[in-house]
């Protein structure tokens, strides 16, 4: 269990050629640390940062100094700092505090794997710049996320940290020792983060996060650390084991456990996290925005949290929402693509479950569902068939049209694939009908159906004999469309009704005598039903009105005889 006293003589100086350059680098690193987190990085001697070194079996102070320090003679200072007296015995599997300036270190950085929303980098000399993917974050630098900002940091040895919105996260120190182990110490001033250490740490590895209230340390795990409350921290272990130290007491959390630490107090009792929620309300494919996802049923949850990420590890966050139990998530701003959903439950005290996920989720809104332009909802079409039109899509290979006798489309009358953005129904009896359309892309992707349009098919009103002579005023008659309706009437010399020769609005009867005689020729007549001055139907299809020349009278006959006589003479 113990290592022996030091021998009277010590080994010669090792690595002396590297002493001063490395010492200068370490002093710069130390200055950064002290500026960013003064007095919070670790125990100190005259302001120096002390690094915990694990005592391995079979070592002693001389060996420890030889293996980790610039000079073997540094054992004396290590002994003084740790209050060791002769015979300078050290016990294996304990920890000694060693000044950072004495250690041979290789400075390391964190790589930025993903950034979403406003995230900035603050350096010890007061500079601030936006943080971008593939940037690096070094010791003494601080990452600050905005209200909707996230960043995913990759640390050495496949360790990950996700910094969540409204957070201030500092790397106090991050380096590799001469034996290859890694020392990492972070500060979380506010906000929340998730640490994920994928493999168990070695005995001399250190991975700690400090808040103004507590210190957490792990050996290989995944856990959340939250500082939403000014006077309290929440720690939730998702995998592995976490130690939480505060108020002179340390508690251990295993997977599925959490605790809360309040300022100046020891960690509260360990409690079980809520059970992970079921994910059956999340569909694999959504075709339109906003995306609506119902919160699942859960025995104890008061809220649910949904994260959509760009990766199946859940690190590169795209969307993060919270909703109350019994309600739904509404995602209104999301680009088309493939995502992974992670769903958690929060109980009445705010403790959050382990996530359910990843659940693949694809959003594809292009091409969109068609927009029917004719007929209008509850509109009227005249004749024995109807013509349906919608806006064309350049993403469409073809369209699928459904015609039904009911709004639920259970009584289909026709289903047809068409290439053009229009469709003419088969011959139909007068009545009410429903139509809807969807787009089919070249890769066979089908959009949602359009909003169904209800419409009526009505026979063209029979206006009787549409003939008159030029010396009479035409009388037009038609059957009533509905009780209490009025009618608009137009007569034109062209089918486009650009040259009107007669027009009336708001006719209260189903007949009209034109007020003027018309010249011989062919005219076009149409009408529509109105109520309180508002049109209720489209114009009927044009019907032809023929005006014949008036019959010859005795004056015309006499003139003809005279004219003929003159010609014969």
Short description:
The protein has 569 residues and is mainly β. The protein has 5 domains: 16-104, no CATH class; 106-272, Jelly Rolls, CATH 2.60.120.1440; 285-363, Immunoglobulin-like, CATH 2.60.40; 372-458, Immunoglobulins (Immunoglobulin-like), CATH 2.60.40.10; 467-548, Immunoglobulins (Immunoglobulin-like), CATH 2.60.40. The protein has 4 helices and 44 strands.
Features:
single chain; 569 residues; mainly beta; Jelly Rolls; 5 domains; 18-stranded mixed beta sheet; 6-stranded mixed beta sheet; 4 helices; 44 strands
How would you characterize this protein structure?
By secondary structure, the protein is mainly β. The chain has five domains: 16-104, no CATH class; 106-272, Jelly Rolls, CATH 2.60.120; 285-363, Sandwich (Immunoglobulin-like); 372-458, Immunoglobulins (Immunoglobulin-like, Sandwich), CATH 2.60.40; 467-548, Immunoglobulin-like, CATH 2.60.40. It is 8% helix and 44% strand. It has four helices and 44 strands. It has an 18-stranded mixed β-sheet that branches. Strands 37, 39, 40, 42, 43 and 44 form a six-stranded mixed β-sheet that branches. A five-stranded mixed β-sheet has the order 22-28-27-24-25, with no helix packed on it. Helix 2 (61-68) packs across helix 3. The radius of gyration is 42 Å and the shape is rod-shaped. The relative contact order is 0.06. Mean pLDDT is 88; it is low at 1-44.
Q: In terms of topology, how is this protein built?
A:
Blueprint: H1 19-36, E1 44-45, E2 48-54, H2 61-68, H3 75-81, E3 95-99, E4 105-107, E5 110-116, E6 119-122, E7 128-130, E8 136-137, E9 142-145, E10 150-155, E11 159-163, E12 168-177, E13 182-197, E14 206-210, E15 215-218, E16 222-229, E17 232-239, E18 241-246, E19 249-254, E20 257-262, E21 271-272, E22 285-286, E23 291-294, E24 303-309, E25 317-324, E26 328-331, E27 337-346, E28 356-363, E29 372-374, E30 379-382, E31 387-390, E32 396-404, E33 412-418, E34 422-424, E35 431-441, E36 453-458, E37 467-469, E38 475-477, E39 486-492, E40 500-507, E41 511-513, E42 521-531, E43 534-535, E44 543-548, H4 554-568
Parallel strand pairs: 13-14, 22-28, 30-36, 37-44
Antiparallel strand pairs: 1-2, 2-3, 4-12, 5-8, 5-10, 6-7, 6-9, 9-12, 10-11, 11-13, 12-13, 13-16, 14-15, 15-18, 16-17, 17-20, 18-19, 20-21, 23-26, 24-25, 24-27, 27-28, 29-31, 31-34, 32-33, 32-35, 35-36, 38-41, 39-40, 39-42, 42-43, 42-44
Helix pairs in contact: 2-3
């Amino acid at each position: 269990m113990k290592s022996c006293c030091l021998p009277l003589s010590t080994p010669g100086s090792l690595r002396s050629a590297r002493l001063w350059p490395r010492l200068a680098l370490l002093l710069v690193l130390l200055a950064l640390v002290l500026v960013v987190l003064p007095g919070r990085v670790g125990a100190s001697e005259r302001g120096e940062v002390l690094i915990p070194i694990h005592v391995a079996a079979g070592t002693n102070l001389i060996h420890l100094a030889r293996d980790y320090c610039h000079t073997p003679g540094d054992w004396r200072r290590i002994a003084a700092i740790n209050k060791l007296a002769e015979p300078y015995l050290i016990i294996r599997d304990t920890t000694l505090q060693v000044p950072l300036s004495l250690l041979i270190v290789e400075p390391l950085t964190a790589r930025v794997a993903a950034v979403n929303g406003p995230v900035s980098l603050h350096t010890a000399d007061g500079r601030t710049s936006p943080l971008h993917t593939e940037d690096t974050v070094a010791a003494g630098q601080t990452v600050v996320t905005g209200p909707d900002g996230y960043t995913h940091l990759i640390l050495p040895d496949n360790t990950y940290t996700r910094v969540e919105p409204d957070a201030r996260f500092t790397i106090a120190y991050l380096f590799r020792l001469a034996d290859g182990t890694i020392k990492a110490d972070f500060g979380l001033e506010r906000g929340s983060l998730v640490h994920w250490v994928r493999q168990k740490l070695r005995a001399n590895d250190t991975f700690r996060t400090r808040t103004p209230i507590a210190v957490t340390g792990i050996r290989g795990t995944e856990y959340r650390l939250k500082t939403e409350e000014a006077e309290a921290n929440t720690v939730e272990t998702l995998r592995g084991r976490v130690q939480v130290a505060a108020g002179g007491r340390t508690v251990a959390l295993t997977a599925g456990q959490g605790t809360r630490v309040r300022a100046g107090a020891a960690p509260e009792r360990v409690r079980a996290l809520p059970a992970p929620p079921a994910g059956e309300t999340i569909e694999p494919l959504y075709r339109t925005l906003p995306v609506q996802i119902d919160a699942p049923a859960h025995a104890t949850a008061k809220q649910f949290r949904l994260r959509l990420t760009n990766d199946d590890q859940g690190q590169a966050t795209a969307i993060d929402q919270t909703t109350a139990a019994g309600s739904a998530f509404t995602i209104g701003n999301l680009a088309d693509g493939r995502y992974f959903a992670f769903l958690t439950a929060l109980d009445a005290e705010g403790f959050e479950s382990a996530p359910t996920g990843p659940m693949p989720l694809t959003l594809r809104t292009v091409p969109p569902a068609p927009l029917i332009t004719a007929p209008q909802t509850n509109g009227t079409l005249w004749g024995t068939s109807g013509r349906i039109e919608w806006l064309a899509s350049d993403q469409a290979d073809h369209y699928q049209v459904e015609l039904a006798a009911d709004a639920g489309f259970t009584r289909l009358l026709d289903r047809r694939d068409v290439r053009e953005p229009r469709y003419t129904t088969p011959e139909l009896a007068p009545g009410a009908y429903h139509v809807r359309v969807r787009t089919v892309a070249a890769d066979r992707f089908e959009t949602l159906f359009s909003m169904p349009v209800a419409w009526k098919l009505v026979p063209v009103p029979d206006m009787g004999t549409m003939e008159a002579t030029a010396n009479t005023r035409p009388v037009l008659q038609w059957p009533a469309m509905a009780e209490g309706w009025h009618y608009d009437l137009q007569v034109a010399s062209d089918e486009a009704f650009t040259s009107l020769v007669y027009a009336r609005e708001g006719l209260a009867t189903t007949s009209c005598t034109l007020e003027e005689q018309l010249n011989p020729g062919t005219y076009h007549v149409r009408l529509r039903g109105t109520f309180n001055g508002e049109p209720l139907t489209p114009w009927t299809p044009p019907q032809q009105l023929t005006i014949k020349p008036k019959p010859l009278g005795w004056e015309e006959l006499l003139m003809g005889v005279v004219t003929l006589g003159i010609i014969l003479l």
